Amino acid sequence: MEPQTGGNTGEAEVRLELDDIQSGALHERPSPYVGSHLLLRIDDREEGRAFVRRLLPLVDSGRPDLVPAQGAWITVAFTYNGLEALGVPQDSLDSFAPEFREGMAARAEQLGDVGESGPANWEWPLGTDDVHIAIAALSPDAERLAVVLERAHKVFDESPGVELIWQQDCYQLPTGRTSFGFKDGIGQPPIEGTGVAPTNHHERPLKAGEIVLGYPDETGDLPPMPTPDILGRNGTYVVFRKLHTRVAAYRTYLREKAKNREDEALLGAKMVGRWQSGAPLAVSPDHDDAALGADRHHNNDFSYGDDPRGFKCPVGAHARRANPRDALDGEGSVDVRLHRMIRRGTSYGPMLPEGVLDDDGVDRGIMFVFAGAHLKRQFEFVKTQWLNDGIFIGAPAEKDPLVGSADGTGVLTIPERPIRRRLTALPPFVVTRGGEYCFAPGLRALRWLADLDT
Known about the structure:
With 454 residues, this protein is an alpha+beta fold. The protein is 23% helix and 17% strand. It has a domain at 18-243 and 436-450. The radius of gyration is 21 Å and the shape is globular. The protein starts with 33 loop residues before the first strand and ends with a helix. Residues 1-11 have low confidence and may be disordered. Its cofactor is heme b.
């Protein structure tokens, strides 16, 4: 396949080597979808390399496509411990980003994963040295996924020195929304060179080097890249987190704070920044608009510049914190484009039946996956500076009302005329069950890993 250029932005764009980039890192999540996340441990170095070699035929490359060539998109990534277990030379290991080398568990306190969300309470083996390989499979339907997983398990069976130690299945809920009831997957940044057109005419495609290593990023420079070049080029860092959602607590909180059922829906939208249909408050501030929410050409086509005080969408709402768009243009010191990343959220566990306010004890939530070239200034910056802190919005005591590191004392200010409204004593609605920092190499790098002779 020939390298591709992106849409016309009035300037020359880099040509991506799409034949070498794992397509799972770039494709849009299908709807509906089913998938599975698997973690493996390498007990034998030679068998680990042979496993990578056997797995290669299942990994697609090339232009993002709505139909996976193998039946499912397979993405394979490695932790620092996994690359070490494969025998990657130490000078190469030392060339990876410091955050990746440390691992998510070691940086949990900085990320706000403390208390109930701390590594001591994470689901095994997440955050341990046993996690070496992470595989994500995503398909439009269960039948095609089953075929691919059967082939993957055959590879496992042929690799006695590699053990499958954890698996989490995921699928789109019958509502097509998250466990909290909101449409998800909106607002992904367009990446130059992929051929995927922007859904927000206010936003030009992001430089490829913000997501894939080996290309200029938004600063005009090449991001630091692991060595040798064949190992780092066309790879990307991947963050995955298992997040348990306390749906009953969320519903109960809204019920207690709302004046009526209509107000309950409004308060939920104010916390998230969108109505449950996906319609953005910035476009439809007073009522839900299901047609707008379903329209992928318009449900992301907006900005916050005309709403600086947050009367339409609170400045502390989840979606606005995660992507402030043009709301910080006047700040001078913040370039939002340096903190964009690809987000892939998938649901796990059964949905809590509509209207139920009591916790049924079932584990449900979201498998969040982030991809980008800069762990620190993308995922870690957004998590610590925008979601867990309110300084950037002028409210230092306020955290993200939905996913911030809450301790039961959280606050969300909702601007209203004549008097603002405040939600107080926000409990933790999301609990971290674990996560990992990984690196998804290009296909040439996968072959290089399989052929290591150290």
